[in-house]
């Protein structure tokens, strides 16, 4: 293939991924007549833009559902997210140290925590930072790092290094999809690695996900679900998926609009 510009090359990589599913760095390097390092930069750019999901070994795969930006997701399932956020906020006790993930549902939780006094909140998400930035009764720690524009969350080695310096009473995780067999789904392996590290630093782990995310497998990066974690969702959740999660030792909480949750199962 003759030499082409970087934008055109990236567009063709996306097209190839759509039709062939997977391609190695070496194969793409030979196809486009560029170095492997150039292809890696292309893949990193496409991943950051949400157009591709990376897999191990330098391969990549395109999701059939391109990653939506946080701005696009804010208005989705609004009432369900509010109910989930209210229930989650009710679990928090004065004096606790919390860890909040990025994402719109966890951002809704951060807003609910504005009236909770004497807590420490560490977060990887800009939404949570914005919700709590002016609250004097909440001590806020930002786990910085590399910002993913689509998710408005920090990832990478700097985030992971900061995480190693703290432990938490509770961690609240977001997700793009949940599979009882595979776990928590995200577009980027950096996100799923970080979620796994976050969960390991907390006494209690909660996954906040409205019903439409249950059973979804939009991407190819996963954080395994662990026994003892709690999924918080809403009344539209598919009973079969909830049953499969409970069979794996995950507690499920189903919330209703206006904060009347069904008891944990």
Give a short overview.
Residues 6-61 form the HTH deoR-type domain. The chain has 265 residues and is an alpha/beta fold.
Strand-helix topology:
Elements: H1 6-20, H2 25-32, H3 36-48, E1 53-54, E2 60-61, H4 70-73, H5 78-90, E3 97-100, H6 104-112, E4 119-123, H7 126-132, E5 138-142, E6 146-148, E7 153-155, H8 157-163, E8 168-173, E9 177-179, E10 183-186, H9 189-200, E11 202-208, E12 221-223, E13 230-234, H10 239-247, E14 251-255
Parallel strand pairs: 3-4, 3-8, 4-5, 8-11, 11-13, 13-14
Antiparallel strand pairs: 1-2, 6-7, 9-10, 10-12
CATH class of the largest domain: Alpha Beta
Beta-strand portion reads 15-25%
Question: Structural class, judged by helices and strands?
Answer: alpha/beta
Cα radius of gyration in angstroms: 19 Å
What profile does the largest beta sheet have? 7 strands, parallel
Helix fraction by DSSP (H/I, runs of at least 4): 25-40%
List the uncertain runs.
56-64, 259-263
Please give the number of β-strands.
14
Q: Tally the helices: what do you get?
A: 10
Average predicted confidence as pLDDT: 85
Overall shape? globular
Strand order of the largest sheet: 5-4-3-8-11-13-14
Distance between the termini: 57 Å
From the 3D coordinates, which CATH architecture of the largest domain would you assign? 3-Layer(aba) Sandwich
Order of helices and strands: HHHEEHHEHEHEEEHEEEHEEEHE
Number of discrete domains:
2
CATH fold-level assignment of the largest domain: Rossmann fold
Keywords: Transcription, Transcription regulation
GO molecular function, one term: DNA-binding transcription factor activity
Domain HTH deoR-type: 6-61
InterPro entries: Carb_Metab_HTH_regulators, DeoR-like_C, DeoR_HTH, NagB/RpiA_transferase-like, WH_DNA-bd_sf
């Amino acid at each position: 293939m003759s030499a082409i510009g970087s934008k055109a090359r990236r567009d063709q990589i996306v097209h190839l991924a759509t039709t062939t599913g997977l391609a190695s760095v070496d194969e793409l390097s030979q196809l486009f007549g560029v170095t492997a390092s150039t292809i890696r930069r292309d893949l990193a750019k496409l991943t950051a833009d949400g157009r591709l999901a990376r897999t191990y070994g330098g391969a990549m795969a395109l999701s059939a559902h391109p990653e939506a930006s946080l701005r696009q997701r804010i208005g989705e399932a609004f009432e369900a997210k509010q109910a989930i956020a209210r229930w989650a906020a009710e679990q928090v006790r004065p004096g606790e140290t919390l860890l909040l993930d990025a994402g719109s549902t966890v951002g809704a939780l951060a807003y609910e925590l504005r009236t909770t006094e004497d807590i420490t909140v560490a977060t990887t998400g800009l939404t949570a930072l914005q919700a709590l930035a002016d609250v004097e009764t909440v001590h806020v720690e930002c786990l910085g790092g590399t910002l993913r524009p689509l998710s408005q969350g920090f990832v990478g080695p700097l985030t992971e290094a900061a995480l190693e310096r703290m432990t938490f009473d509770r961690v609240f995780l977001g997700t793009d999809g949940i599979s009882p067999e595979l776990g928590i789904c995200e577009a980027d392996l950096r996100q799923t690695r970080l979620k796994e590290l976050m969960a390991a630093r907390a006494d209690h782990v909660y996954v906040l996900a409205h019903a439409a995310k249950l059973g979804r497998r939009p991407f190819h990066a996963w954080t395994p679900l662990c026994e003892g974690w709690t999924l918080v969702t809403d009344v539209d959740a598919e009973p079969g998926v909830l049953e499969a999660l409970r069979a794996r030792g995950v507690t499920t909480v189903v919330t209703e609009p206006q904060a009347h949750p069904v008891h944990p199962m």
